[in-house]
Design goal:
With 215 residues, the protein is an alpha+beta fold. The chain contains 6 helices and 15 strands. Strand 8 and strand 9 form a beta hairpin. The radius of gyration is 18 Å and the shape is elongated. 32% of the residues are buried.
Length: 215
């Protein structure tokens, strides 16, 4: 799993839960946020944040959680889409206004992310199947060297737009991406209605798209 460092000041300071009050086992909030679905584990630590308790399988994870709790806790859905600061491979700046009224599947990826590349044929299938129904897949590359993403697109000739994230104002930070693949489904009103982090189930994504645009 590829992790991305992100530190944003939280709105509320998480409070440690005493060891005596920890459950014997619980789902690790950090592992879950990275798409790891191995169920309950021994609870090594816990914190209270925004009226809820969150647990960890490793005490080292607590510090990262405290830096930016909102990036780890289960997402609020639906919610307004975050900003999009990116450009096409030929240098054209794009924003949400370019896709207003469309259903958008936003896929954060990188050339060095094997699961991201492996999922691309499934993304292309969705683009080709639903393109006539005001739907578009947007692949946002977070490669530090944009030339790699440009070369990748030229070689693969993907049927959907490949965008280059703005390194000075990265969209992945606004979307609180902690691991990739990270996929977000945005409806015609600009609301994020589904998201998948880490392990992405293509059939689940297809079903969610169908619910918005029809079969």
């Amino acid at each position: 799993m590829i992790l991305i460092a992100l530190a944003v000041a939280s709105q509320e300071a998480p409070q440690d839960i005493a060891k005596a009050n920890l459950p014997k086992s619980a789902v690790c909030v950090v592992c879950a946020s990275h798409g790891e679905t191995h169920g309950e584990e021994r609870a090594a630590a816990g914190v209270r944040y925004a009226g809820k308790s969150y647990f960890f399988c490793d005490t080292k994870e607590v510090a990262d959680f405290k830096k930016d709790p909102e990036a780890y806790i289960p997402p609020v859905l639906p919610r307004p889409a975050a900003k999009l600061s990116a450009a096409t491979v030929d240098g054209k700046t794009v924003s949400w206004n370019d896709y207003k009224g469309k259903v958008v599947l936003l896929d954060f990826w990188a050339t060095w992310c094997a699961p991201c590349v492996k999922a691309m044929p499934e993304m292309e299938k969705l683009q080709n199947r639903f393109a006539g129904k005001d739907f578009v897949v947007l692949g946002v590359s977070i490669d530090e060297d944009p030339k790699k993403a440009v070369a990748f697109q030229q070689k693969r000739k993907l049927s959907y737009p490949v965008l280059l994230d703005d390194p000075k104002d990265p969209s992945w930070a606004a979307w609180k991406v902690r691991a990739i693949p990270a996929v977000f489904l945005v409806d015609r009103e600009g609301q994020v209605v589904r998201q998948w982090r880490g392990k992405v189930d293509p059939k689940a994504v297809e079903k969610a798209v169908e619910e918005l645009v029809g079969k």
